[in-house]
């Protein structure tokens, strides 16, 4: 398994081996010991799977505040996404900074995003499937959303603004500065 910490060191790109033959391929997509060696130590308690029909679907930026913060190990099993994490840890040297990586069926990479980060992605293909493991369960009251194109964060998305397909919740989400008070809840 390849392991590559990104510019914010806690965000780690891991790429499990994939063995191809005439039937197709085989891959250990999660192996506890190897993930621990890569610094991904928490226990996962929920697996999520989403399908986005169109290219340009944006989901995020999302997090859950205490007492239900979530870490996420994200992969794209059909098509391709640009996956993003934004540091919302109070007092962090990289507070408000973002990192992103392309995750795809082709590159087989997974992005580890610990608790303390906003998470979001945009689809680069039609019929895109994303699967991710979470370190805590969903809690509607603790969910928070921040605008995907918040000027204060300045994410360089690989899609144009007019291409973005958003849920009502995400379209109405506040900008980063307005939302910042939530993160300490
Ligand atoms: C997140 C979530 C949603 N739901 C339900 C609520 C709602 O009816 C429906 C769709 O929810 P959403 O619109 O919030 O789905 P979505 O916009 O895909 O939300 C997800 O976005 C990505 C970026 C994340 O990081 C996730 O944690 C999650 O926030 O699914 C669950 O039952 N369990 C869950 O864990």
From TrEMBL:
Gene3D superfamilies given in the database record: Jelly Rolls (2.60.120.10)
Top-level EC class: isomerase
Pathway named in the protein's UniProt entry: Carbohydrate biosynthesis; dTDP-L-rhamnose biosynthesis
GO cellular component, one term: cytosol
GO molecular-function terms, A-Z: dTDP-4-dehydrorhamnose 3,5-epimerase activity
GO terms for biological process, alphabetical: dTDP-rhamnose biosynthetic process; polysaccharide biosynthetic process
Active site as annotated: 62 (proton acceptor), 132 (proton donor)
Catalyzed reactions per annotation: dTDP-4-dehydro-6-deoxy-alpha-D-glucose = dTDP-4-dehydro-beta-L-rhamnose
EC code: 5.1.3.13
InterPro entries on file: RmlC-like, RmlC-like_jellyroll, RmlC_Cupin_sf
Protein keywords: Isomerase
Chain's role: Catalyzes the epimerization of the C3' and C5'positions of dTDP-6-deoxy-D-xylo-4-hexulose, forming dTDP-6-deoxy-L-lyxo-4-hexulose.
Family: Belongs to the dTDP-4-dehydrorhamnose 3,5-epimerase family.
Protein name: dTDP-4-dehydrorhamnose 3,5-epimerase
UniProt lineage: Bacteria, Pseudomonadati, Pseudomonadota, Alphaproteobacteria, Acetobacterales
């Amino acid at each position: 398994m390849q392991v590559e910490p990104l510019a914010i060191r806690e965000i780690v790109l891991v790429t499990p081996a994939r063995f191809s033959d005439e039937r197709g391929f085989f891959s250990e997509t999660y192996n506890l010991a190897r993930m621990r060696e890569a610094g991904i130590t928490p226990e996962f308690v929920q697996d999520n799977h989403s399908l986005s029909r169109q290219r340009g679907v944006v989901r995020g930026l999302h997090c859950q505040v205490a007492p239900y913060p979530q870490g996420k190990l994200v992969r794209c099993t059909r098509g391709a996404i640009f996956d993003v994490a934004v540091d919302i840890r109070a007092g962090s040297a990289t507070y408000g900074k973002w990192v992103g990586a392309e995750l795809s069926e082709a590159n087989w990479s997974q992005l580890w995003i610990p608790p303390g980060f906003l998470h979001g992605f945009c689809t680069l293909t039609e019929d895109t499937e994303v699967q991710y493991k979470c370190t805590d369960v969903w809690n509607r009251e603790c969910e928070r959303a921040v605008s995907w194109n918040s000027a204060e964060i300045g994410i360089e998305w690989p899609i144009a603004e007019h291409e973005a397909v958003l849920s009502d919740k995400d379209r109405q989400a506040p900008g980063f500065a307005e939302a910042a008070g939530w993160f300490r809840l």
